[in-house]
Amino acid sequence: MTADISAQGGTQGRRILRLYHFYRLTIGLALILLISSNLDEQLLDVVHIELFRTGSWVYLILNIFIAVLVQKPKHLVQLFSLALVDVIFLSALFYAAGGTPSGIGNLLVVAVAIANILLRGRVGLLIAAIAAMALIYLTFYLSLSRPAAAAQYVQAGALGALCFAGALFIQGITRRLQVSENLAEQRAADVANLEELNEQILQRMRTGILVLDTQHRVLLANQGATQLLGRGELSGKIIDPHCPELVKRLQQWLHNPTLRPDSLQAQIDGPVLQPSFISLQRGDQQHTLVFLDDISQIAQQAQQLKLASLGRLTAGIAHEIRNPLGAISHAAQLLQESEDLQGPDQRLAQIIQDHSKRMNMVIENVLQLSRRRQAEPQLLDLKYWLHRFASEFRSSAPADRQIHLETQGGSLQTRMDPHQLTQVLTNLVQNGLRYSAQKHRLGQVWLRLFRDETSDLPVLEILDDGPGVPPELEQHIFEPFYTTENKGTGLGLYISRELCQGNQARLDYKPREDGGSCFRITFAHPRKLS
Do residues 435 and 467 lie in contact, with contact meaning Cβ atoms separated by under 8 Å? Predict the structure, then answer.
């Protein structure tokens, strides 16, 4: 029967074994001091002086070897043998010292009790039975040579009963302690598992979570916080130089906790964040729990409400405007076909036609915007998708229009509606080619796909070598109905940005230092949308 000492109580069992060694060594040293000072003959009614003294020395030496060699017994038989040898030697000393008056029987009871902490069940009771039989038998054997020992039967029987009582009592207590220890270990394992689960949940949350001390040092930062703030590892760092806007909001909240903090943008091209703060009292330390929410989803919901309202409005006015507009356009067409119409009047009729078409185009774009279907994101391999888009675009583009594609890094994936991405990219590429052709004989657009090192998100840049956008007009180019062309509707870039936001992507404009324009699409993480 093999059983590691850890099965008998783990670390606690090894401590008890060391206590058992110490107890036996203490008894051995006490006996050696007793016989070395010749007090054994004065204090004890020794029956066999040589056996007692030799046995004391052997008991001490044997226990020293056992204490050195037996530290982690691998077999239950070793523990049983150790307890059995201890009982045999103490029984022999009990006999040599004259029986129950020597007091060694009490030491035997204690030894049995300690052995039953390590040896449980029937094995422990077997040790108690051997000790009890040894006490009674040796008392009987002493009474044969010393009639006075016959009066020790009651005491010997009591010691034997104490061996059983001690064994049963110790086993009961040990069993309860073992149950409590197992329950405590199970609770500790459950707490550790819950802590690990909470850590995983915390790291995978989209909401950014920070814990700051009074010096604004980051005690904890989950992955969402580092991504939203566009920073690397923040733990242990002072947040002030990394995100002063957040510290400013924190100071405002500390001054007046009832006010809702203003939103902030930690990065120039980053998402708009809504911070919230909660005080944490940990002992005598005051910490602050910071939540950072990307409000792009809220903006998307607001955009859906705006589009729904716009849809109801345009549906109401489309019928009222398009019917008269169609009549005006038809009348102008008939007027142009008249033979009596003079040249200047022909020009006026053509103006009516042109502006009627432009008004109809505006209505079509607004209706398209309001009727835009809900995005159906799909997992896209952007490299493969862009190569296919560029190939299809080149096959239908004129000879004086060229599109170039450059990709960097490994696999780049995102979740986005492929039809809406096609609509956005087609609009941006056509704009770039048109403006490039205004400045050069050959219109060219460059598509550059890469992974942003800061945010670890896929980025697509659409670059052209046209005249670019004047700095004073950059803030207006995404406004609806804003255009710098006579024939434009001013809805192309607006619709493109709305489609990107509907897919949790961002469309931004970046002027090029060497002239031209750069429109940058920052895609969402492939796990961000379901």
Answer: yes
- Mention every residue, 6+ apart, whose C-beta is less than 8 A from residue 254: none
- Distances in Å between the Cα of 84 and the Cα atoms of 125, 141, 197, 420 are 12, 21, 49, 85
Record the tokens describing residue 429, joined without a space.
């590429």
Closest CA to 7 of 119, 127, 149, 157: 119
304: left (phi over 0), alpha (psi -120 to 50) or beta: alpha
Nearest to 414 by CA among 296, 509, 521: 521
d(CA 356, CA 352): 6
| Spatial separation of the C-alpha atoms in residues 84 and 232, rounded to whole Å | 65
Quickly tell me which residue has 């069992």 as its tokens: 13
pTM of the model: 0.43
**Percentage, residues of the chain above pLDDT 70:** 86
What end-to-end distance do the CA atoms of the chain give, in Å? 56
Q: Is the dihedral of CA 384, 388, 393, 394 positive or negative?
A: positive
Q: Where is 164: in which H helix or E strand? A: helix 153-204
DSSP letter string, 50-66? HHHHHHHHHHHHHHHHH
* Residue 526, CA atoms < 13 Å, CB-side half-sphere: 11
d(CA 216, CA 249): 12
Task: Name the token pair of 490.
Answer: 């001013």
Q: How is residue 239 written in tokens?
A: 């947040």
Token output for 48: 């066999």
Backbone angles phi, psi at 39, to 5 degrees: -85, -10
Q: Are 277 and 290 in contact (CB under 8 A)?
A: yes
Residues of the chain by 3-state class (helix, strand, coil), percent to 5 = 60, 15, 25
Cβ neighbours of 292 (radius 10 Å): 25
Summarised one tens digit per residue, pLDDT across range 138-189 is 877 777 777 766 677 778 788 888 888 888 888 888 888 878 888 888 898 8
Distance of alpha carbon 403 from alpha carbon 433, whole angstroms: 8
